[in-house]
Amino acid sequence: LEMDKLRNQYETFQRGQEQNAANQVDEMLERLKELARRQDELNQRQQRAERMSAEERRRELEKLTRDQAELGQRAEALARQMEQQRQQGAQGSQGSRGSQSSQGSQSSQSAQGSPRGQQQGASGQGRQGQGEQARQMRSVSEEMRSAAGDLGQQKSRQASERGTRAAERLRDVERELRSGGPDERRRALGE
């Protein structure tokens, strides 16, 4: 009876964690989508700036430089959030493994052959995937900062190329996160 009660509490807690993780992934996906949309807008504004008079072009490039730098900061903040969630998920996974192993010692199944043991292995792989996505986001952020620098030096072509690459990478990260089902998304957060 006591074990059933503990198991029910654990499962209730686990469902709450799963819902929280799903919400975090959804929020991240929206932020990625918004960053990609804004980067596309900046790229279009850069193209329009090419057709402006010299003075108008200079003013527009100054605005674009500020906007591009802000977008780079947002990408960097999202990369930090992804890394932080990965680390928190890893710590949470280690804590739940400890409680699972104490419960598991009372059962005759080995951890490797049990579904939980397999889930723990998959969870580790998800954390690695999340770490890769955070690295990709840092790369996007760097690309955006470089584009802002190029705009500041009035190197529109290079800035446009960097902006296009940044938007493509943002969509890649979004696709990777979106392509996983609910379990894959939870693992991506390290849970």
Describe this structure as you would to a colleague:
This protein is mostly helical and 191 residues long. The chain contains five helices and no strands. Helix content is 88%, strand content 0%.
Percentage of residues assigned to helices: over 70%
Rounded Rg: 22 Å
**C-alpha geometry:** elongated
How would you classify the helix and strand content by structural class? Answer: mainly alpha
In short:
By secondary structure, the protein is mainly alpha-helical. Helix content is 88%, strand content 0%.
Name the features.
191 residues, 0% strand
Blueprint of the fold:
Elements (H helix, E strand, L loop, with lengths): L1 H48 L4 H51 L10 H38 L3 H24 L2 H7 L3
